[in-house]
């Protein structure tokens, strides 16, 4: 839907709302002269004025009900061009084209007033001296304008709701489906990576886990299909209801329109019953489906059997990152803390830690499962963990201190106490958003990468 605000040469504003099939044209009269219908004696006249001092805008779109004139055209332009057609009259007050005006049965006069007491169109004689004398009456055009304004609001709300449902279907559900495939794929990879070391003993468990992942994927897929079908149906129902109201708005004669509020209310209730789409956890894969106590236990046992069973012989310390407070063995696997007398000045390197006794691994890990075993010997103070390659290397601040920033996660051992540190706090391990490096620090004795 597009919205255009314009000013004509007489200063009359108009707002056009279009969606390809409907044009809602809001006109404001540019004359400030009052229109006082001539009435018979005993009937109070209702003056319609266009005072600039009483103009009010609602939501930047609609003015006071006595000010605007709505023209609703869905093919009405063709009707306007063929204005000479038999049986078609132009109601300039309400701005619509309707069938030939109905006449009062009692006075044979045009039904151009609306009796609010009896809720029906009446002629001026009925209102002034007839059966509706003393009742609350208003010009029929004013009543029609109010009803049409209400219909416009209802149709606009339905259109916005339809847009939200379309976005939910096209964006949220589609994105969830893509994430489902990705999450299921990652889960399978994790399962297969853990099972690969002891595949012979875990063939049955592997099959069970993969079937669980498949069932979970199918469950979420079914939820997505159900949601898609439900909201497509809701969108169709909403569109049909809105189309019906638009048809009522554009083709119903004034006299019939003002008596159809009950039907309009029912349609509004139907639209409100559609509800708003919501994203839920049921639309995401539950990664717990790959959890297995047997797998975790056997995997941990395999790691403890020795370096030949599991591990990467390529993992070493990167010489460029080693702090001057440490020494690196010839095989690049052992870090030893240096006391002051043993320290030597090292050439400047932007990758080297210059204040904290840190060193990083040589292998960047971006996916998969990685393990290593370190021999900490008699060391009473060390840190072992991972960090992002973007970790600060220079200075004595927390930015370069392992476990005291949001770039590193380490298991720390000091004075007999073990703790897991991240950003200076003890926190649970989370998934990571970037490739990682082995990160170590030692301030007592040495630590060695075994595998």
From TrEMBL:
Ranges where the B30.2/SPRY domain occurs: 294-451
Record domain B box-type: where: 99-140
What stretch or stretches form a coiled coil here?
188-226
Whether Lipid metabolism counts among this entry's keywords is no
Keywords (alphabetical) are: Coiled coil, Metal-binding, Zinc, Zinc-finger
Q: Which GO terms describe its molecular function?
A: zinc ion binding
Q: Is Transmembrane included in the keywords of this UniProt record?
A: no
The superkingdom listed in its UniProt entry is Eukaryota
State the name under which the record lists this protein.
Answer: B-box and SPRY domain containing
Native species: Oryzias melastigma (Marine medaka)
């Amino acid at each position: 839907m597009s919205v255009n605000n314009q000013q004509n040469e007489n200063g009359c504003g108009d707002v056009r709302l279009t969606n390809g099939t409907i044009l809602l044209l809001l006109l404001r009269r540019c004359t400030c002269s009052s229109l006082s219908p001539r009435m018979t004696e005993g009937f109070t006249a209702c003056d319609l004025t266009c005072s600039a001092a009483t103009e009010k805008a609602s939501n930047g779109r609609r003015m006071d009900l006595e000010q605007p004139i709505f023209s609703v055209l869905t093919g009405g332009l063709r009707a306007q061009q063929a204005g000479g057609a038999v049986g078609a009259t132009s109601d300039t007050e309400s701005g619509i084209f309707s069938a030939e005006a109905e006449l009062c049965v009692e006075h044979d006069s045009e039904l151009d007033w609306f009796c609010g007491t009896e809720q029906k169109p009446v002629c001026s004689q009925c209102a002034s001296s007839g059966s509706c004398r003393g009742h609350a009456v208003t010009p029929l055009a004013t009543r029609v304008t109010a009803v049409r304004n209400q219909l416009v609001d209802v149709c606009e709300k339905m259109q916005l709701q339809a847009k939200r449902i379309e976005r939910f279907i096209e964006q949220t559900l589609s994105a969830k489906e893509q994430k489902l495939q990705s999450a299921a794929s990652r889960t399978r990879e994790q399962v297969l990576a853990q099972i690969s070391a002891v595949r012979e003993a875990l063939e049955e468990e592997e099959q069970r886990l993969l079937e669980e992942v498949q069932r979970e994927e199918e469950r979420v897929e079914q939820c997505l299909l159900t949601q898609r079908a439900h909201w497509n149906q809701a969108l169709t129902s909403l569109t049909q209801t809105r189309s019906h109201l638009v048809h009522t708005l554009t083709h119903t004669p004034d006299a019939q329109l003002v008596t159809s509020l009950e039907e309009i209310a029912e349609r509004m209730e139907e639209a409100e019953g559609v509800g708003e789409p919501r994203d839920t956890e049921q639309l995401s894969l539950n990664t717990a489906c790959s959890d297995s106590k047997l797998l975790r236990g056997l995997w941990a046992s395999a790691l403890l059997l020795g370096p030949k069973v599991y591990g990467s012989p390529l993992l070493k310390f990167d010489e460029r990152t080693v702090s001057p407070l440490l020494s690196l063995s010839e095989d690049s696997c052992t870090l030893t803390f240096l006391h002051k007398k043993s320290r030597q000045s090292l050439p400047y390197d932007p990758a080297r830690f210059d204040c904290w006794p840190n060193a990083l691994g040589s292998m960047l890990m971006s996916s998969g499962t990685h393990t290593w075993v370190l021999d900490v010997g008699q060391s009473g103070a060390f840190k072992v963990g991972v960090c992002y390659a973007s970790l600060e290397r220079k200075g004595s601040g927390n930015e370069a201190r392992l476990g005291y920033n949001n770039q590193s996660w380490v298991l720390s051992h000091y004075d007999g106490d073990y703790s897991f540190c991240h950003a200076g706090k003890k926190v649970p391990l989370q998934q990571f958003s970037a490739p990682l490096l082995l990160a170590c620090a030692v301030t007592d004795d040495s630590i060695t990468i075994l595998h």
